[in-house]
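Quality-control log, excerpt.
Job 1 of 2 completed; input and output follow.
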Amino acid sequence: MVSKRHGKVKGQYCSLSNLFLMISVLCSLATHAIAQDTKSSPTALSVYQVPAYERKPGVAGKISSVGSDTLANLMTFWSQEFKTLYPQVGFQIQASGSSTAPPALIEGTATIGPMSRELKPSEIRDFTRTHGYPPTVLKVAMDAIAIFVDRRNPLPGMTLEQVDAVFSETQFCGSNKAITNWSQLGVNDIGYRSPIRLYGRNSVSGTYGLFKVMALCDGDFKNTVNEQPGSASVVLSVASGTGAIGYAAYGYKTAGVRALPLGESLDSLIPLSIDTVRNETYPFARFLYLVINKKPGEPLPTLEREFLRYILSQEGQQQVLRDGYFPIREDVLVRQRRLLE
């Protein structure tokens, strides 16, 4: 913001030339301030260095998407904006969970398979057996699996060992005792003296599978975890009552919940922010993917190619920010665009 002491014109009857000079100075200062703000903002910098999308003629047809619930809103945003560019394009979006994407691509019932986790070796093997080549996987956004508590909960954060002890039956990450009450985490406020209520995703979810590996050291969930069909349901359940905790995609955060900082120790807690997700220092940072069927050495059909080019453009990455997720780094984005060529 430009300081008033720089912008104030002294004297009611200053000459026209002096007035133009002062306007020039103000514009220069404002331009410098905007540039400084852009440099200090990783969000602005990340998006404005991404190439803008250029509309192409003759794009029409239908795209079918089957897969991740985490990516459901993003797919909707992308499709709506793409349709404003190409009114002759139609979309069918089914968000049943990441595990439903590979079978749909193998069977040819989906054009695109959104996934919130990497493909399993068995899924790649099944696809390759059917089509004779592996699927193409594009990184299109970044997300984090957040540990949510209600916004009034005073807990400052959790260690990774505590996360495992809260959610896991097996405690493979090092804890020698399960955590079932808030007092074991140092929370003794009124309203937090009952057992911890646990919420998470169901087993077809990529978030479920990834959290199992990353947070439980591939252990087993407690049978007291209330499995929900979507991240929005997890967040709503945590926000609607005192004493609950749940894991879900950060993009579904609401004002009623708070994402806890996490770390190896309570002295090294890492908050969930755009910086810690994009540089992958937040423990549960992850990429979000779109899986497609692309024959090696052959171009994608025009409709699919243009939709994916839009997603990997300035406008597409702005939609990522709009939905509460994080744009991919520029170096990663360049590599993804090359996969379409």
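Job 2 of 2 completed; input and output follow.
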Amino acid sequence: MLSQRLPESLPAPADADGLPPAARQWAIMSLAIGVGMASLDTAIANTALPAIARQLQTTPAASVWIVNAYHLAMVATLLPFAALGETIGYRRVCIAGLALFTLASLFCALAWSLPSLVAARLIQGVGASAIMSVNTAMLRSIYPAHLQGRAFGINSLVVAVAFAIGPTAASLILSVAPWPWLFAINVPLGVVAFFFGRRVLPATKRASHQVDALTAVYNVGAFGLLILALGDAAHQASMTTLLPEILGAALCFALLLHRQAAHAAPMLPVDLLRRPMFALATLTAVCTFSAQSLAFVALPFYFETTLGRSPIDTGFLMAPWAVLVGVMAPIAGRLCERYSPGVLGGIGLAALALGLVTLLLMPDAPSAWDIGWRMGLCGIGFGFFQAPNLKAFMVSAPPERGGSASGMVAMSRLIGQATGAALVAYCFILSGQYGARYALALAAGFAAVASVASFLRMVVVRVK
């Protein structure tokens, strides 16, 4: 596939309809490596927390900041980077993100204490945010319009599989190497992605508006405090901790909306959210990733605690979901070039809801087959949703607002995952041993709401 020679110089002017086939393959490889690393590192550190805590001689509670710092940095800076991409070019933001992520990965591998590792993870999260904020917008300049469905399919495949195999990949690395290799392995991959990105990622048109620094500060405060409050609530923090975070987030959101009210291209894209198709794509994504997060956090507890399966068995039982996502994402990407994203997404999410309900209704002592086909149905449904929904995001935004649309793609995914993880914690707090079952029921509900939201796009189209 990548047998063609690397182009000698930057290909394709900004107004070209995609790159030539040879350059396109190298460009998508560069993006896929960056997106894959950023997505994988969202989940991979969770598995390594016990080993890291032991070696750095810190408590499990303190070690959670290794995960929280990365997540906070990503969510807080996504929309500012997306806005910056519109003004200075998506290519520059993406390449800078690859460089920063790679360098921060090296710092993570060399960390000697918990504070040094948390600081490195914070920088790594900023780099990942820069990549994820513009990668979907970059796809529109890499692929011609009639092939963008398959581009979204490839992107969906990389994100979904990276998130799904994160724990398994971490376990495999830790079985043969110490925890710093979880981060060191990013360095050669990042160098390759950076090299190819500089050579083949195309320049894009730049917007005339400027990024307001104070708006960016309000945005960082609003989303940073929101995610911090969700995480602290999930860990049963006291109201003396939660209340200032909630009030601070509300204040920052109010200041953000007031500050950007007269801006032609608001950082928090309320102008795009007023578009019914874009708003429905956002609602669909948030609900779907909440369902995925609820299921992925609850199912290991269900398999191991309720069903008495071993951790190794759990890894294999989770695999059908990831495998079927990998099979379906490219197929859905091609189909959405011909059929309505609303219909395709609605069908896929109905299948996901049905799969989650069947998991909830399993017999008391299910066989591997009983579990496997149900997990496979969930994977088929989830894989069928992503590429059509990505297309719905991007086509419902004007080309000059592609950066903001791309930022909202990543933001809706991260907000959904954070919401799902927090709700799982609440389910266990309220329901004890039945927490996993309640979490699966909630996941099925979220998937059903997402399916309805996706189908509603057909109504919006008819009204227009």
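Post-run check on job 2. The chain is about 80% helix and 0% strand.
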